[in-house]
Amino acid sequence: MAGRRPGTGEYPLDPETEPVRFGGFEIPYRAAPYFTVKKTVEYSEEEDAPRQKKGGDTEDLYNDDYFECEGEPEPRGLGTDEQHEVEGPALKDDVEYDAKKKIWFKLFHVPSMLHGAIIGPGGSTLKAIQTELDCKVTVPRRGTEGPIEVVSYKCSSGVQRAVERIELLVIDSRARKPYTHFVSIPANQEKIMKKYKELRDKVLSSDHFSEDCRNREIWCKPNKLHLTVAMLCVLDKQEERLAEEALDKAVDEGRERLPKGKHLKVRIRGLDIMGDDPYNTAVLYGKARCDKLQAFVDGLAISMRKAGFAVQKKLSDQGPVKLHMTIANVRHSEGTRRHIHAFDATGILKECGLHDFGELTFDKVVINVLGKETPGGGYAVLYEKTVPLA
User: What ranges does the record list as Basic and acidic residues composition bias (predicted)?
Assistant: First the structure.
C-alpha cells in the first residue's frame, strides 16, 4: 500500500528511474541514493560521425596506461539509425552502450550541493578519477541541474569503477552535511498529550524541582511528541521522492513483524535521560518498550541506511533504534532569553520516574522536515505512510 503526500490525497506514481546497482561493490547500510537516467538516443545522417583512425575504430581519446579492460564484444542490435530508449538490460553492470558513437556510458543523479566533492580542489579529484580509470566524467556547471555522465571508449568496467569511486566521495560528503529530515512514529495522540501536559505542568508549577527544569522553553510542544526512528539527510526534490519510495518499501516489508489484523499498541511508561549524569541532563524522555515495534523500527532504520539517506555519523548509529519519546531538550531553549545547556533532572526522576503516558496506537510512519512547523505547532510532514493491516 503506497503512502501519500500530505494535503494532496494523491499516491506517488512509479518513478521513471531505477536505483543504480553497484555490481561487485556494496556499501553496507548507506549506499548513495543514485538513480540511472533513461536516455533516448537519436541518430540522424546529419550527425557528426565519430573521429576515426586507421582500421575503422573510434579514436582512442584517453591514455590506457592506468587501466586495462578485458576484451568485451560490442553489444548487438543498437547500431541502427533509429530511436532507442537505452536501458541496458543485457549490458554489464547496467552500463549502457551507444553503438553509433561506440561508447559505454552511465548517467545518474547526485544533488548539486555534493558536486564539489566529485570535482575536488581545482578539479584535482575529477582529474584523478578520469586519469586512473581512463574515462570521461561530466559534472553539470555550477547553478545548473542535470545528471553526472561517465563515458568510456574502451569498456563498461571503467565506467562502473568510476561510478563506484564517485559513490564513495558522495557518501563521505553527505555524512558531513546536517540532517534535514527524520523518520518518526507520531505520538501526538490525545491521551498521550494529556498525560504529557499533566507531567509538564506539575514540574513547572512546583518548587520541588530545580529551577532549570522549570524552564518552559526546554519542554516539547505537545503536537511534536514522537518516537524517533532515523535521522535523514535528503538534499533535493528527487531525493525526497526516493526517500518516500524507500519508506514505502520498508514499511510494507516490515509489516510481517507486526500483529495480524490490528494495530500495535505500545505503552510509554517511565522516564530516563540521554547520558549518565542526571545532574547535567540535556534530554529527558519517556520510555517505550515493545519487542514487536523494536524489530520493526530496526528493520526500517536499516532500510533507510541502505537507501543512502540515514547517514551514520557515529558508531552508535549502527546499533538498534533507541525507542524513546523526548519530552524535554535543552536545544529547544536555543535562541531564547532562557537558554540553558543542561538541567538537573534528579528531582523529576525521583518523583515522576514511573509516570505513565498511556498507550500509543501505532498506525503510521512519517518523514518529518527539520526546522519547519505546521500551523498547529507540530513538525512539518514531507510524507506519511499508513501501516496497513495484514
Answer: 73-83
